[in-house]
Amino acid sequence: MIIAVDGPTASGKGTVARNLAEHYGLKRLDTGSLYRAVGLAVLDAGGDPADVRAAVAAAEALDLDAIDENRIRSSAAGLAASKVAVIPEVREVLRRAQKAFAADPRGAVLDGRDIGTVICPDADVKLFVTASLEERTRRRLAELRARGEQISFEELQAQIAERDERDMTRKDSPLYQAADAHLLDTTVLSIEAAAAAAYAIVDRVMAARS
Ligand code: CDP
Question: Which ligand 1 atom sits nearest the alpha carbon of residue 166?
Fold first, then answer.
């Protein structure tokens, strides 16, 4: 079973994907972490994430097993990720790694922006996870403050809106809800309630197919 989970920044898609993977015993790929790792590598080298050559070189050198899970969570890495993500050559390099992961016959959960539309268009179940901009800003603010990052609500909200805009308007693989994706709005849902709603969708889709 392949489950595709897409949605905007801090919508809760990562948490939903993690819970789905555990619940159904599937492995999971957080595809945003690949873009974050590429963006961070460019920043670490003193480069500009919008520089095509630097970003492509970082994507080609990426070692999936050596990603620093802590450092890629900074807001700077997130912003750099959304800049390298507009570059088609970067997406092409990362697309190969994602498709290889999804080709595992044991199945998988992948979460990102273009999983149901480009990476796994034939996924068994597609979820589009969303939440209001205010709620997403609150969640990301709590995460960043827990990491010790100082940023105001207003500044972060503007940053998230900027990333939403860039993700939804880029030419290559923009973020949008696939026609056959199930919408899951987590604005007023707890982590447990969002997970339960996701299991209900998956169970319903799989039951209808069998
Ligand atoms: O954690 P958050 O939702 O803020 O972002 P993420 O999922 O870690 O992704 C970081 C950035 O990578 C996004 O803003 C997208 O620009 C890009 N991305 C993408 O283009 N395609 C994906 N499948 C996953 C992420």
Answer: 16
Task: Please give the distance, rounded to the nearest whole angstrom, from the Cα atom of residue 83 to the centre of ligand 1.
Answer: 10
For residue 138, the domain's CATH number is 3.40.50.300
The protein residue whose alpha carbon is closest to atom 5 in ligand 1 is 9
pLDDT exceeds cutoff 90 at 45: yes
d(CA 89, CA 180): 27
Q: What total number of domains does the chain contain?
A: 1
**pTM of the predicted protein model:** 0.94
Print the domain residue range for 106: 2-209
CB contact at 8 A, 73 and 35:
no
Residues 122-129 have a mean pLDDT of: 98
Give percent of the chain above pLDDT 90. 94
